[in-house]
Specification:
This protein has 254 residues and is an alpha/beta fold. It contains nine helices and eleven strands. 35% of the residues lie in helices and 19% in strands. Helix 1 runs parallel beside helix 9 and helix 6 packs across helix 7.
């Protein structure tokens, strides 16, 4: 089902943060989707069971797909608690990933604390580093361990917001999950626009090169402004959903 546009957007602090702005954006997106001009993916660090209540409670639009857990799980409608992730994506990621091996890259890091069990899955090892003496240096140690490992090519480190670190399959991540879904669903959009605010959104911009960075973005994403590769990225003056709407207007969609 080809569509002219695809918007793939993070949720927290990208769509959410200004309820009035999100309600306005959701109404505009609904019109575009009704006319067949837009497909919508939600691409988030949340679990699916945290996304679903947001449809009613946070005015988050019900999308055409949910990419959750930092690009390690993919879900298609109808969305329901307990729904299994898309099997083709799950099988692809399991080919070269061991959770035990991923955990080994975190051993002995001072100040590291594991995230709650709900955010640690067979395909995602997640921790907090804000208790480390130098969180950025600790994250770099973990990156270096992965890079130096004989099997390190099967893993990637996602560092975000000066706190959150994930070790996930190299084949995963938000950007690659979007690309997989485009092919899986046969969307063939003329234009893909991504939107985000933090480091775990970076792979979306790397994969597609066209997107919106909201004004409240974390430093690791705001720093892309100085990169040559970011010439097609729009850095909004607006925060949260207002920034997303501003960016979509810049690209001529709104």
């Amino acid at each position: 089902m080809p569509v002219p546009w695809l918007l793939a957007t993070d949720i927290d602090n990208t769509l959410t943060g200004d309820p009035d702005a999100l309600r306005g954006l959701a109404a505009k997106l609904s019109e575009l989707r009704w006319d067949g001009r837009l497909a919508l993916f939600l691409v988030t660090g949340r679990r699916l069971d945290q996304v679903i209540p947001g449809f009613a409670d946070e005015h988050i639009p019900v999308p055409d797909a949910v990419i959750s857990q930092v690009g390690t799980e993919v879900f298609l409608p109808p969305f329901a608690d307990g729904s299994p992730p898309l099997g083709e994506w799950d099988a692809l990621l399991h080919r070269a990933y061991s959770r035990g091996r991923a955990e080994s890259f975190l051993e002995g890091i001072a100040g590291l604390a594991m995230q709650p069990a709900m955010f640690n899955t067979p395909l995602k090892v997640s921790c907090y580093l804000d208790g480390a003496p130098d969180p950025d240096a600790a994250a770099q140690v973990i990156r270096d361990r992965v890079a130096a490992a004989p099997d390190g090519a099967g893993y990637q480190v996602v560092w975000s917001s000066g706190r959150d670190l994930d070790v996930i399959p190299a084949a995963a991540g938000k950007g690659k999950a979007i690309r997989f879904l485009i092919d899986h669903l046969g969307l063939a959009p003329r234009q893909v626009v991504v939107a985000g605010d933090s480091g775990n959104d970076r792979t979306m911009f790397d994969e597609f090169g066209c997107g919106v960075v909201v004004a409240n973005a974390q430093p690791e994403l705001a720093a892309m402004r100085d990169e040559e590769s970011a010439r097609d990225i729009y850095f909004a003056d607006g925060r949260y959903a207002a920034g997303v709407a501003e960016g979509l207007a810049h690209y001529g969609l709104l």
